[in-house]
Amino acid sequence: MVIIFCIIGLLWIIPFSWADEKEELQWKAKALIAELQLRQAKLEQANQAVIDFIKELDQKGFIYKDGLVIPKPKPEAPKTEKKEK
User: Fold this and answer.
1) Which long-range contacts (CB under 8 A, 24 or more apart) does 40-47 make?
2) Which whole-number Å values give the CA distances from 8 to 11, 14, 21, 44, 62, in the listed order?
3) Distance (Å, rounded) from C-alpha 30 to C-alpha 19?
4) N or C: which end of the chain has fewer CB within 10 A?
5) ∠ CA(25), CA(41), CA(63), 5° rounding?
6) Whether the predicted pLDDT of 85 surpasses 60
7) Per-residue model confidence (pLDDT) at position 17
8) Is it the case that residue 9 has pLDDT exceeding 90?
9) Cα dist. 21→8, 9, 13, 35, 57 in Å?
10) Which pLDDT value is given to residue 43?
11) pTM
12) What is the pLDDT of residues 11-57, one digit of tens each?
């Protein structure tokens, strides 16, 4: 008789433990999605900062190459070849 009550008690507890696990997984999913959205926002801000920096360098006549800020190379004048007759 005691065994029957134990089995019935276990069967009664299983749906509640399943619901707790499901709810926990839902909260974990929400937390992961929120973290992803936060990181995407930070990435967009960092990307915009880089774009603004490149524009600033261009306005001041510099470029960023190999980890260094260097002056822009001067455009070369087109070479004119003289034809010999």
Assistant:
1) none
2) 5, 10, 21, 55, 78
3) 16
4) C
5) 145
6) no
7) 59
8) no
9) 21, 19, 13, 21, 54
10) 97
11) 0.56
12) 666 665 566 888 899 999 999 999 999 999 999 999 999 999 999 99
Pairing relation of β-strands 62-65 and 68-71?
A: antiparallel
Quote the pLDDT of residue 3: 72
Other residues' Cβ atoms within 10 Å of the Cβ of residue 20:
10
Strands in 15-79 per DSSP E: 62-65, 68-71
Please say whether the beta carbons of 53 and 63 come within 8 A: no
What is the residue whose two structure tokens read 């920096």?
A: 53
Q: Which residues have C-beta within 8 Å of that of residue 71, sequence separation ≥ 6?
A: 61, 62, 63
CA distances from 25 to 21, 28, 32, 64, 71 (A): 6, 5, 10, 46, 54
- Confirm if 72 and 60 have CB atoms less than 8 A apart: no
